[in-house]
């Protein structure tokens, strides 16, 4: 596991990415339709995260079934 720290906001919250083998751990979860994006930090993975969520939405997987 690797943590990439991108930013710390005014309230002290950390924003970044959690990686396993150079893959953001959330991408497979989004692709399976098991999660949805809420507040995405403008980081290096934002585009990949949105593509993964859109894939699940188009395929109507899990939370996007209805």
Automatic annotation (TrEMBL):
<feature type="domain" description="TNase-like">
    <location>
        <begin position="4"/>
        <end position="66"/>
    </location>
</feature>
<dbReference type="InterPro" id="IPR016071">
    <property type="entry name" value="Staphylococal_nuclease_OB-fold"/>
</dbReference>
<protein>
    <recommendedName>
        <fullName>TNase-like domain-containing protein</fullName>
    </recommendedName>
</protein>
<dbReference type="InterPro" id="IPR035437">
    <property type="entry name" value="SNase_OB-fold_sf"/>
</dbReference>
<dbReference type="Pfam" id="PF00565">
    <property type="entry name" value="SNase"/>
</dbReference>
């Amino acid at each position: 596991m690797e943590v990439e720290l991108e930013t710390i906001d005014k309230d002290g919250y950390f924003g970044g990415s959690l990686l396993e083998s150079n893959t953001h751990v959330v991408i497979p979860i989004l692709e399976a339709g098991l999660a949805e994006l809420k507040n995405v930090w403008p980081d290096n993975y934002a585009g990949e995260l949105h593509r993964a969520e859109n894939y699940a939405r188009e395929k109507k997987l899990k939370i996007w079934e209805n």
